[in-house]
């Protein structure tokens, strides 16, 4: 479920975006201002805020998915489920680098500045 909430810190959020190649796992949206985090197992179904249960998803995909299981959502919408499942499995295995994300945010002068300059800064990773 998408919320503009602070269930993870900004460095953790950015580190997850970076882990996921800074793009929505469904549609590939890359504008950081349109990105959000999706719970693979929805909070409503007992999913936690653990980074392995969070993937990068744009606000648009996230709000149309709501609490639907990802597979069911992809099949319903005709998205490439095997490709998306591979991205999710990769995300579950990969580690995140919160320290690098924290430094990048600090160098930009804070999260809002980071997001404003986002696309330029993001590709330095
Ligand atoms: Zn999307």
Structure description:
- With 125 residues, this protein is mainly alpha-helical.
- It has seven helices and two strands, in the order αββαααααα.
- The chain has one domain: DNA Binding (I), subunit A, CATH 1.10.30.
- Helix content is 48%, strand content 8%.
- The relative contact order is 0.21.
- The model has no long low-confidence stretch (mean pLDDT 89).
- Zinc ion binds next to β2 and α2.
Short description:
By secondary structure, the protein is mainly alpha-helical. It has a single domain, classed as DNA Binding (I), subunit A (Orthogonal Bundle), CATH 1.10.30. It has helices spanning 10-19, 59-65, 70-77, 81-93, 98-108, 111-116, 118-122; strands spanning 35-39, 54-58.
